[in-house]
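Hello K.,

You asked for the raw outputs rather than the summary table, so here they are, unedited. I folded two proteins back to back in the same session to keep the settings identical. This is the first:
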Amino acid sequence: MKNIKKELEDDQAVLAVVPAEGYTESCMGDLRVLAKANSVCYITLNKTAGSLKELCKEHNVNLKNIVFIDAITKTFADVPYEAEQVYYISSPAALVELSIAIEKLLRHNINYFVIDSLTNFLVYQKSPKVIKFLFSIVKKIKKTKTKILLYVVSIKEQEDLMRACVRLKG
């Protein structure tokens, strides 16, 4: 079992390649560790913030230290831009909106950003655009003390994205 906190102490940006089987448990386990005594921004591209809050409760994750950027809910529900501990983005394809929300939260000294998952970006955007966006975000984060954990589901079709993410460390 990996020690995500230790990995993030060693590297400011960590790519977690997780098999589809056990994916939720892995993410929730990492989030439980990170949110124990640190502020976390969890960027969700595949689940609503409401469903993630329920998952967090089921997995004993400290919700008090988490703010969500939800890129799914506005695709099917009329919600405001902001609610308690949640910023809503119009869709996972809205990379500029997402970038603005991340920049806003970076000013609030978030300890960790978690993106779940890079794989989902590719449903909405072509790989080169996603890679460019990720380089931009990681570059902004690296100017701070904030750490970033990027999840990708381990499937063959995502090999180009994973190779590009490995280059993010440089």
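The second followed immediately with the same parameters:
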Amino acid sequence: MNDYLRATLRAARTDSGGTEHTLADEFARLRDYLELMAVRMGVRLSFSLHLPDALAQHPVAPLLLQPLVENAIYHGLEPKLQGGSITVHASQTGGTITLEVVDTGMGFDTTTLAHPATPGRGYGLSHVRERLSTLYGTAGTINFIAEYASGTRASITFPFKK
């Protein structure tokens, strides 16, 4: 827990004024957070993180994925009696990077976007949108997709920096 808190505070004060750190750092913070949540939820939570080596040093806004993972747990897995899993992965296609958080939780109603709290409109998610806009303008996007059986897929895309 101390490692997570220390790293989170450090991420907010990076050398670039808190606007970027590496995807490796972002995934390390997610691992710390998910390990804490796994202690709390026990067997009701499983997770996997997939970061290709080629993307590990790519710059990204600090705590960009954290609100998505928190929402997946809070809205998706905690209300589900048997819990579920979260998968976070990064990929590159051409000049675009995609970061996805996929959970097997409760999902949401695609006709009303009700989750019980409407996805994409919370405090943390407004900060994700703000970070994407600040760093990438209209080229940075976030989308929510209802998964087939249950669960939600949150997908962030932004330009690959060479």
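Residues 111-120 have pLDDT under 50 and may be disordered.

Happy to rerun anything if the numbers look odd on your end.

Regards,
P.
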